[in-house]
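Input.
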Amino acid sequence: MGETHITGIIPARYGSTRFPGKALADIRGKSMIQRVYEQAIKTLHRVVVATDDQRIADHVKNFGEVVMTGVHHQSGTDRCAEVIEKLAIHSGYIINIQGDEPFIQPEQIQALSLVLDGFTEIATLIKKAEDVDELENPNVVKVVINNRNEALYFSRHKIPFVRQNSGSQENSPVYYKHLGVYAYRTDVLSEIASLKSSMLEKAESLEQLRWLENGYKIKVVETNTETVGIDTPADLERLLMNPLFFGR
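Output.
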């Protein structure tokens, strides 16, 4: 198929109910968005920050590429779709990297890149979930997969539901949680951005269910590396207290 061209896009907005301006939050001398960008550029040749805020745009210009987008987008996927139109990127793949995960590892992005063969429509990262609190937490999205490493369903509930416990470890299900890093083939990104919101999406508040409902296949790639998202100032304080992340 030849070389696959991959562009990383980091959606970053200023407005956040729980943490306004978190993209510019200082993490030991660097902003959160700069740390995300520096991790992504270690493995991708081109990384673009997509923002609707001039303050973020002015800051990013000091270290990387930035594109201004509209303020109306409901998701990072929609923001990525506007970027590919503005930059006239109509082939290859886009990797949508969360702007609030400053210590995402290049190896995770690289693992996702390896399945982008021209046939894959959408791909994303998953990780085994063994912590009981995670499995019961509706903010941690769970996923069930088929034998082809494709997502069957995503849910905020613990899935699969085990009706009867056989007592056999061999028959115990493996639980996976979803890590919100997506790769899209560019033509597919344009298509899914134009889809109307679906019933399952509204029920679970998960945009990827809209894609499954419309027949798109989502390839999953398992990682053993944890990601750390920052949703609140308290999350950032906990991160700053943990020296492990600054040894990465």
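The CA atoms of residues 92 and 98 lie 20 Å apart.
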